[in-house]
Amino acid sequence: MNPPDEPHLLEFPRILDERGNLSFLQDDSQIPFAVRRVYWIYDVPGGEFRGGHAFRQTDEVIVALSGSFEVVLHDGQVESTYPLNRSYKGIFVPKLIWRTLQNFSTNSLAIIVASTPYDEKDYILDFDEFRSLGNCD
Ligand code: TYD
Q1: Which of 48, 50, 73, when mutated, tests ligand 1's pocket best, judged by the most ligand atoms within 8 Å of its CB?
Q2: 14, 37, 50, 53: which is the annotated catalytic residue?
Q3: Strands 123-124 and 50-55
Q4: pTM for the complete prediction?
Q5: Beta carbons of 50 and 42 less than 8 angstroms apart
Q6: How many C-beta neighbours within 10 Å does residue 13 have?
């Protein structure tokens, strides 16, 4: 099992029903932070990337509510690619991890729950600065 402060996949409860299935997430009983913000990314043109930055303080969980895409994470030393294509799975992305979303399928929908309100000062946009901040030798 991964330490809670490292990127890891999450599986949400699934209430299976002939009428359609239901999943949910409920604060820090299922995810390792209290939710302060939810945002979503949609209508992504083929071949586009989102992200390409890290956060100083924000932890996130990313879910492919519909369709599929890849989450590429870089800890300053190692890059890992996580394909997301199930609405009951997500990935926990802690602060100080460089993250990019790519290979969006048509009509895909990414929902992201975050531990902080939006603050542009929380963004690390320069990879060299990111590498100098920690998590790296
Ligand atoms: P950004 O986080 O850069 O998008 P991505 O990482 O997916 O490429 O955000 C794009 C724009 O949206 C930017 O102008 C800031 C704005 N924004 C908000 O106003 N609130 C939010 O919660 C987020 C995530 C972005």
Answers
A1: 50
A2: 53
A3: antiparallel
A4: 0.95
A5: no
A6: 11
